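Tokens as discussed.
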């Protein structure tokens, strides 16, 4: 731990004024969270631990063992501690895109490279950054994030923000966050998150079969089917917007048509699924940042899943994925396209 704190302190000295402020809150926030960590084994053994909490912590331990034994994920000391948060989320994320583009703004960091989001340990700081980006003309999404990965730099604890999720979702989160320790490319959030989602989905399927949770497995698969329908609606809108933004219409007209496309997306979903799980999402004031955020977690998932299913083992799959790190960007995308029968285009260039 001391060497990691020293690294964070060194990074502060390499940054500019606004970045120093950002890394100061990031460092203090991370250390404050870790200072609240309680050992899970101690909590489980304690007589005064709530029985429901004990069962959920034991479930996380079982998921962690499964991740190591069946998914070849580096469990090690991750999820060995527990943190009771003061609020609903440990961090808040800011995603921003230009008004007439679906490409998210990139924030770059020492060591890990660039990412399509900026995280804050305090909601007020995230909201303030969101306002600043809006004032610069960006579309912005600010939202709470129930979990995040430090990519193995620290031993990520279990958080109260998700401890009581239903079993499939809890397992998915554990597998997703551990997957980030296997593979990460600085500057390519869509590939990083799509990979983790693919491992998450395959892991949940195996976990529920392992636990003989047939009803939960059927329900989980049904949710994935509905999500694919939802993602197709989003993709249709993305294609409309890509054409609009690439065109020569005046800004005022682009703005009008853009609003029209988002209203059509809302109406299409609600007319088909008036009580669907994404009702609250589409009922909000939609913008490019919201579409970009969803796309970050879905763009390459089919490609990774197909490669996983065609691999002889999880280790073989991971080796194929890690090979992407050595490729230039466009070659990386072409390699991913070969993993799927139907090619998926790279991110929009506008």
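Sequence:
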């Amino acid at each position: 731990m001391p060497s990691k704190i020293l690294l964070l302190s060194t990074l502060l000295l390499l940054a500019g004024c606004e970045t120093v402020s950002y890394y100061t809150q990031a460092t203090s926030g991370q250390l404050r969270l870790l200072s609240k960590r309680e050992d899970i084994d101690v909590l489980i053994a304690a007589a005064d631990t709530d029985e429901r909490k004990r069962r959920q912590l034991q479930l996380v331990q079982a998921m962690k063992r499964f991740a190591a034994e069946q998914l070849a994920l580096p469990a090690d000391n991750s999820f060995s501690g527990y943190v009771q948060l003061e609020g609903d989320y440990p961090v808040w994320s800011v995603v921003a895109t230009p008004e007439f583009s679906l490409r998210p703004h990139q924030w770059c960091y020492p060591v890990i490279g660039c990412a399509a989001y900026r995280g804050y340990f305090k909601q007020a700081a995230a909201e303030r950054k969101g306002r600043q980006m809006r004032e610069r003309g960006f579309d912005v999404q600010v939202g709470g994030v129930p979990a995040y990965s430090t990519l193995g730099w620290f031993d990520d604890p279990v958080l109260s923000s998700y401890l009581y999720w239903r079993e499939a979702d809890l397992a998915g989160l554990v597998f997703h966050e551990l997957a980030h320790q296997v593979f990460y490319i600085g500057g390519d959030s869509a590939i990083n998150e799509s990979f983790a989602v693919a491992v998450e989905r395959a892991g949940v399927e195996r976990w529920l079969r392992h636990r003989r949770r047939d009803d939960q497995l059927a329900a989980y698969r049904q949710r994935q089917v509905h999500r694919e329908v939802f993602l197709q609606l989003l993709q249709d809108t993305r294609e409309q917007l890509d054409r609009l933004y690439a065109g020569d219409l005046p800004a005022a007209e682009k703005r009008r048509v853009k609003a029209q496309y988002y209203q059509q997306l809302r109406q299409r979903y609600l007319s088909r699924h008036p009580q669907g799980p994404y009702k609250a999402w589409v009922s909000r004031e939609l913008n490019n940042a919201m579409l970009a955020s969803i796309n970050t977690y879905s763009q390459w998932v089919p490609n990774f899943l197909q490669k996983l299913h065609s691999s002889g083992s999880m280790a073989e799959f991971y080796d194929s994925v890690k090979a992407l790190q050595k490729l230039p960007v466009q070659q990386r995308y072409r390699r991913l396209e070969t993993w799927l029968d139907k090619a998926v285009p790279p991110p929009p260039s506008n």
